[in-house]
Design a protein that fits this description.
The chain is α/β, with parallel strands linked by helices and about 300 residues long. Among the domains are: about 120 residues, 3-Layer(aba) Sandwich (Rossmann fold), CATH 3.40.50.1980; about 80 residues, Rossmann fold, CATH 3.40.50. About 45% of the residues lie in helices and about 15% in strands. The strands form 3 sheets. A 4-stranded parallel sheet has the order 2-1-3-4, covered by helices on one side. A 4-stranded parallel sheet has the order 8-7-9-10, with helices on both faces. It has a two-stranded antiparallel ribbon with strand order 5-6. Helix 3 crosses helix 5, helix 5 runs antiparallel to helix 6 and helix 6 packs parallel to helix 10. The radius of gyration is 26 Å and the shape is globular. Belongs to the bacterial solute-binding protein 9 family.
Length: about 300
């Protein structure tokens, strides 16, 4: 009887040791050692994801070195890597045309503007494509640069935070805290822009390119858009365009995506047009970031509204 009792105690001791092993810190950490692999399709999303995830995500931005954001397509090896990732956060609003010819599981592709469709704007261009045997048909193309409206950008960042928290709750506190800080900064700068432009709601400007739709709507900017790249010279036809616009609306300012040629800038000044640079932040800025560029954009607009701080 004594031998049976000793044997039973031994079995219980072994079982108890096994149960204790399940609750050791080493075992628990093994469950959450996987660093989430996160892909993003735009620089602003890269910035938001980095601010939110920090060292708790493996962040990848394959378009970073591309010279063209409109014609970029992922390489086969990149697509394969995307398929193995946890999330592929996209801008939506028609920005990622490469997705139409790329097969990536819908379960990991997260459209950060999916629930903002009522706030998406048309670009003014037409887009032709086809579905299977239905033949080609035409859509009004959406404007894509949603991140120039910082309220929309804030909501896109929130989508990133929510998905990271949902799938990796062990880092919830970090993700929530980081997003809270980011969100407060976006809201503050958004308010700052709105306060600035509210000082003159009748002001009209010329936009060098039709890429500022969300910026215009969010901050009550009015004007006309041309199709001028910063490296364009002010030839006879373009000078005629400026003369026409000045007579029609008495424009005094022109917003560029980057600094125009110095000769173009000088000739425009002679015609009464001051050049202002508002960076649309298509790509990762060198030695800068999203907020620094938006602050620089604010300072440029302050010249138009004659505000000094």
């Amino acid at each position: 009887m004594k031998k049976i009792s000793l044997l039973l105690l031994s079995v219980l001791f072994i079982v108890g040791c096994k149960n204790d092993t399940k609750n050791t810190p080493e075992t628990e950490s093994a469950v959450s050692t996987k660093t989430p692999i996160v892909y993003v399709s735009t620089y602003p999303l890269h910035y938001f994801a980095k601010r939110i995830g920090g060292e708790h995500i493996d962040l990848r931005f394959p378009m970073k070195t591309s010279k063209s954001i409109t014609n970029w397509k992922p390489k086969t090896i990149t697509i394969a890597s995307m398929q193995e990732s946890d999330f592929v956060f996209i801008n939506g609003a028609g920005f990622e045309k490469w997705l139409m010819s790329t097969s990536i599981s819908e379960s990991i592709v997260i459209n950060t503007t999916k629930n903002l469709e009522d706030r998406l704007l048309e670009s003014g261009s037409l887009f032709t494509h086809s579905h299977g045997d239905d033949g080609a048909h035409v859509h009004n193309e959406l404007a894509a640069l949603t991140w120039l409206d910082m309220d929309l950008a804030n909501k896109q960042a929130e989508v990133i935070a929510n998905h990271l928290i949902s799938k990796f709750p062990e880092h919830k506190a970090v993700y929530e805290s980081n997003f809270k800080t980011l969100s407060e900064e976006l809201i503050e700068l958004d308010t700052k822009f709105k306060t600035l432009t509210a000082t003159n709601l009748e002001l009209q400007v010329i936009f060098s390119l039709p890429v500022y739709q969300y910026f215009e709507k969010a901050y009550n900017l009015k004007g006309r858009s041309l199709h001028w790249e910063p490296n364009y010279e002010l030839n006879h036809d373009r000078a005629q365009d400026i003369e026409y616009l000045k007579k029609a609306e008495n424009f005094k300012y022109m917003i560029w995506e980057a600094a125009p040629l110095s000769e173009t800038k000088s000739r425009l000044e002679a015609m009464g047009i001051e050049s202002i640079v508002v960076n649309p932040i298509y790509t990762a800025p060198e030695n800068s970031n999203y907020f620094k560029e938006m602050e620089a954009n604010y300072n440029q607009l302050s010249k138009i509204y004659k505000v000094t701080e």
